Protein: Phosphatidylinositol-specific phospholipase C X domain-containing protein
Organism: Gymnopilus dilepis
Amino acid sequence: MVFQFLLSYVVLSLATSALIAHARPSFHAPAQAPNAIARRATVCNGHAELCNRSFGNVTFVGAHDSYAIGVNNLAANQDQPITQQLNDGIRMLQMQAHNETGGIRLCHTSCALYDGGTLQAYLTTVKQWLDANPNEVLSLLIVNIDDLPASSYDPVFKSVGLDTMSYAPPSLTMPASQWPTLGSLIDSGKRLLVFLDNGADLNSVPYLLDEFTNIWETAFDVTDPTFDCNVNRTKGDTSTQMYLINHFLDTLVFNQPAPDVTHANVTNSASGPGSLGAQVTTCVAAQGRPPNFLLVDFYEYGGGSVFQVAADVNGVPYNPATPVASPASTASGSASSGKTSVITSSLSSTSQRLVLLCDSNILIAMFVVAASIMTGPLLL
């Protein structure tokens, strides 16, 4: 009798538990990847203050013809390697891409004039730097000089793994105020923004963005140090677009523009006539907002002044952990202090400067003259 009672009690308890379990609403935690942790960038491009700032509301320093690296070379616009440029604070890398046998190469007007190597090798360096610096947002500006379709670039980006790191916008064009914040770009892993000056097609390659529907530019190849802030090239609404100032001074060599390294310290300085700071001030007055991109030659001339200008505009301190690289030019025999000319004043004229150039530059000058006769002005 007792045994039957206990058996009935056990059966009833089990049945009751089953009914309760069946009636209780089930709860499933959101599916997560193994070890998934929500990322939240707290320092973006070196400053916590920039994490909540829209990409379209930040000023970045860019290296004009970043791949064209050399010393005392008429076709060189920089004299520090790409990794050094990035380590020092460059956050836009501009380049000129050419369709050559064997693939896309980075050349200056012509690969016979200056050949900076393959796009794939260049992007490999960029990828390595991005991997080593996970809290940085970087942009690339590609001058698609041979009008290649966007699909020609896609395999190169995929081969080095940059396609998965590149931001794809929801539409062809966006006002400056609607771009994602730096923090959200970093959190998403899409912290590379790639612009093509022509040939962009979001349907075929959604991460290669059209420059001139999103960014307008001031004049380039300027030989007058009085830089203005007039619109030179655009395809969009300049009142809402981001914008880029071409702040690099050229000098005429055989009637063709070439980088004026002799005045780079003045051109890159934070204040004074012809300075980067002066042009930014002009632009703020004319446009009501600062430029988004400051494109410069020989960025390290001035001892970091180009980065000081950007920091002032962004409202953050400029306090690099290490000083920027010293100018690599051997013309003066020593590094520039940021105030004195890198090439001595006795070499201020173009003809005197040419004395320092090697035989290869004489050939380059001859090429420039011949090419200009046949095709018109060259893009340097």
